[in-house]
Amino acid sequence: MSKLFFVNIPYNCSDRELQEWVESRGFKTRSIRIVRDLVAGVSPAFGYVELQDDTQTHEAIHVLNGKKMRNQTIFVKEAQVQITGASRGGLERRTA
């Protein structure tokens, strides 16, 4: 799985807008999730993008990191997978 972590996303950016921004630069997406404040409903400026092609992770980071989206510089890195503990006899993996 190729999941990227995006920081400094514009606060009122939609999942669709982020998807279009990434795909307009040549990377097909599998899923987009901008993290939002549940009370205010706005994004705290970070989110995750899962690419369809796992082999494009490093290229996508190189192309997207440091680029502007609505006058804000976007920072991109590979999302880290955390081991959270036992789950049904095995370890549960979460993306952070």
What does this molecule look like?
The chain has one domain (2-95): Alpha-Beta Plaits, CATH 3.30.70.330. The strands form three sheets. The chain has a four-stranded antiparallel beta sheet with strand order 2-3-1-6, with helices on one face. Strands 4-5 form a two-stranded antiparallel ribbon. A two-stranded antiparallel sheet has the order 7-8. Helix content is 18%, strand content 41%. The two termini are 13 Å apart. The mean pLDDT is 85. The protein has helices spanning 15-23, 57-64; strands at residues 2-7, 29-34, 46-51, 68-69, 72-73, 75-78, 81-87, 90-95. By secondary structure, it is an alpha+beta fold. The protein is built from two helices and eight strands.
CATH superfamily: RRM (RNA recognition motif) domain
CATH class membership: Alpha Beta
What does the main sheet amount to? 4 strands, antiparallel
Q: Spans with pLDDT under 50 lasting ≥5 residues?
A: none
Q: What number of domains?
A: 1
Kindly name the structural category. Answer: alpha+beta
Strand percentage, roughly?
35-45%
Cα-to-Cα separation, first versus last residue: 13 Å
The tally of helices reads 2
CATH fold type: Alpha-Beta Plaits
Q: Could you tell me the mean pLDDT?
A: 85
